[in-house]
Amino acid sequence: MTGIYIHIPFCIRKCPYCDFYSLPSDSGTREEYTEALIKNILMYKGRNISADTVYFGGGTPSLLSVSQVERIISACAEAFMLDDPEITVECNPDSTDREKLSGYRQAGVNRISFGIQSAQDCELGFLGRPHSFSQARQAVYDAFKAGFENISGDVMLGLAGQTYVSLRDTLDKLCKMPLSHISAYMLKIEEGTPFDCERVKNSVAGEDELCEMYLQTVEFLEDRGFKQYEISNFARDNKISRHNMKYWRCCEYLGFGASAHSFFEGKRFYCPSGVGEYICGGAQKNVILEEAPDRTQEYIMLGLRLSEGVKLEKLCALAGEDFSRKFIQRSRILEQNGLCRIRDGAVSLTPRGFLVSNSIICQLADS
Ligand code: SF4
User: Fold this and answer.
1) Is a pLDDT exceeding 80 seen at residue 214?
2) Whose CA is closest to 214, among 348, 341, 349, 112?
3) Ligand 1: distance of its center to the CA of 92 in Å?
4) Closest-CA residue to 57 (of 7, 115, 129, 114)
């Protein structure tokens, strides 16, 4: 089944570490953009496409009003055959309140993902986030009281001033909240962002410290029932992100909105339009990235991000026996070094392996 991704490229202001495409917006622009999205989604009406996830990502999708989210979901229901869909909205704690969250719930949203990042206000200040931790905690409880049972929180590792103690305190506070899912990302200094300067580079965690923070995070979360299912993602009660799993399992998804990417009917394509152009009908201009992606390379690259790993039977069907034999031989060497496991007919990386996943993927994809 297909996943539907809705890109909302608006933010109140730009965080200094972020290189995503996002802009400030007024309510008129958000309304025009919503209408353009609806038109774009309805182009798929009548094609009998079944979908089981809808994901509002950004940017800051929670800048949309309840009515805008509701109308977009209705358009999805009109254009696609929605089957017990997981419907997620990414939210920033400063752009939600109890009323809006209740409205989203009534509109059919059943999963919320909050950008919490840290429980320490000084670390949030370093990130230039417009919310405090008490606001984030309030937002999570507001969502819970609004009826959400599937709530995710993002946390960031490697921040200036972050210590092992402050990180554990953040994780501890998150685990005590009604969250079913945590995403833990390592801060990466992106080229061309305000963080791309010596002052910031010298103040954040070094590589060894960052790796240790990651390993401690995995252990801490696993101890509290958050099972790791992907490099950066952990779920309690098996509440994994069904939508994001589609990316990692090479399933189809259709992206709508300015700069949204898709993988559909075997092709990868994206919408190159900016917001203004998209509003004026730029949805027509999808650009093909790959006509026929290399399925073996993609399967290895994405499968090794997951704790379930690369299934050898599937690899053999995709790439043949010779390739699979070499893949297993190389995996055995990595296993001896504690970087991967070969178990139940699959090769998966250990947390230490995840830390060097790029180089492992290069080695194994070249089997
Ligand atoms: S809120 Fe998210 S998408 Fe927007 S600027 Fe900050 S990090 Fe980037």
Assistant:
1) yes
2) 349
3) 9
4) 7
